[in-house]
Amino acid sequence: MALPRRYQIIEYGGKRFDRWTVRALKWVEKQLGFTLSFSQGSYNRGVSASAGTHDGGGAVDIRVTGWSDSQIRRVVNMLKDAGFAAWYRKSLPGVWGPHIHAILIGNDMAAPGAKAQVVSYDAHRDGLRGNAWDATYRPDPRVKFSYLLRKPVKR
Which CA distances in Å does 68 have to 59, 102, 129? Predict the structure, then answer.
């Protein structure tokens, strides 16, 4: 049985994603008025620093080199407004550089670790091993990106 069209894997920004994630990312870029640069996409198995969260669909890491704190916050909040669980990850020397990590909420092809991060996000946690409190902005009511409508909708 073939995958639904929304889960067909395509390349965008030089990385692999499913069509649903790309639609959501394009919506974010349109709202921001600029194109994002990706350091990691989805369906990217075997990256130990990612603990398997990028093995399936809906996952993205966004480069933030040269961005101010307010620019980073704006992009993270726009991702959340689009229906992503999203966090800014500060540099962890020897493991990863600074980036924005996000998971498209509701993506059935997401890896188990990515789905666990969405649960963590909903509990206002940071999605990392220690599951620390995260008091940053969350849309209320929560939103999910609609593949068919090509925009976020209230859940």
Answer: 23, 19, 27
Domains and CATH numbers, the chain: 8-154 (3.30.1380)
What is the chain's mean pLDDT, rounded?
94
Q: What is the pLDDT of residues 73-112, one digit of tens each?
A: 999 999 999 999 999 999 888 878 999 999 999 999 999 9
Per-residue pLDDT tens digits for 18-77: 999 999 999 999 999 999 999 999 998 866 556 778 999 999 999 999 999 999 999 999
Ordered DSSP codes for 48-60: GGGTTTTSSSSEE
Strands (E), the chain: 9-12, 15-18, 38-40, 59-63, 84-89, 99-104, 143-146, 151-154
Cα angle for residues 69, 73, 74 (degrees, 5° grid):
115
What confidence score (pLDDT) does residue 96 get? 85
The pair phi, psi for residue 61, each rounded to 5°, is: -120, 135
Q: Nearest-CA neighbor of 103 among 33, 45, 36, 20?
A: 20
Structure tokens at 94: 């020897």
